Amino acid sequence: MAVDSNGQGPATMTDKSAADVAFVAAPLPLGGVHTVARRRRLSGGQWVRLTLLGVLLVLLGAAAGLGTALLTTPVYAAHADVLYLLTREQPTGFLREDRSLSTQLVLFKSRRVLEPVAADWRRPIDDVTHAITATVLQESEDIQVEFVDTDPERARTMLEAVVMRYLEVSNNDERSDLRNYLDGELHAVLALESQVRSEGQIRAAEMGPLVDREQWLRRQLDELKLSDLAGPRARVLVAPYVASEPIRPQPLVAAGSGALAGTVVALLSVAVVARRLTRP
Questions:
Q1: Structural domain boundaries, residue 258
Q2: What is the pLDDT of residues 44-55, one digit of tens each?
Q3: Omega before 249 cis (within 30°)?
Q4: Strand order in 132-136's β-sheet?
Q5: Is the dihedral of CA 58, 60, 63, 64 positive or negative?
Q6: Is residue 140 domain-shared with residue 206, that is, in the same domain?
């Protein structure tokens, strides 16, 4: 048994060993020992490789967009302008001129106009409806019509058929309806005038407004007859023609969209790779 240097008793360990045990057994400070691991920095070569990766992804996106555009069947647009002359008064006397033009736009896409054209070309009516667009040039009586198709000559010919059918329906039916409306109103006013006259002084005060209404209706009928002599209200202003370039696809736009998508992918990819390379 070992005895300490003072002869006091047995010694089980040296002073140094006791100090080591005390250090190990001592409690750690509140919160423990924190170590901060620093991320590694990218080297110059790694930056170059990441840049090349980003550029490659952008170029691949642009090439994909351009390739898709070049492989897509081109679509051509035929155009025509139709002039629709507005009268001073509408059938009821209350409708605004812009409503009259809006009605013409609806008529252009109606089945009454498009069904005969679709039947002649053996095309589904829904396809013909989706292919045609009609808009009114701002603050004018000019209706601009567009028809799209993969064959430019077919687009022009079908638009010509649509315009001719529209002119037939618009000019003939609308004038007939307006004339019938005015004639019916005039006969009703004349019947009321005859009834008022038969009742003598009892309803004499009502005669003035009826006479004014009769004169207004006769003026409208006279203007309608004059307009018939002057020509139809709807007429072709610019004959159907086809633009030389297809409206879609547009290779430059497709390439730009692909490059934009490639840029987004490149930024995400570079960020992920850089994070992995800089892990401690």
A1: 44-71+250-277
A2: 888 888 888 888
A3: yes
A4: 132-136, 142-149, 76-84, 234-242
A5: negative
A6: yes
CA angle 135, 236, 167 (to 5 degrees): 85
pLDDT of residue 1: 47
pLDDT of residue 19: 46
pLDDT at 200: 66
| Structure confidence at residue 99 (pLDDT) | 67
Contact 154, 169 (CB under 8 A): no
CA distance 31 to 41: 30
The answer to whether the beta carbons of residues 246 and 74 sit under 8 Å apart is yes
CATH number at residue 159: 3.30.70.1130
Q: How many domains does the chain have?
A: 2
Supply the pLDDT for residue 177.
Answer: 65
Residues contacting 149, CB < 8 A, separation 6+: 75, 76, 78, 131, 155, 158
For residues 229-256, b (16+ Cβ closer than 10 Å) or e, as one string? Answer: eeebbbebeeebebeeebeebeeeebbe
Stronger pLDDT, 101 or 164, i.e. the higher one: 164
Strands 132-136 and 142-149: antiparallel
Can you give the pTM of this predicted structure? 0.53
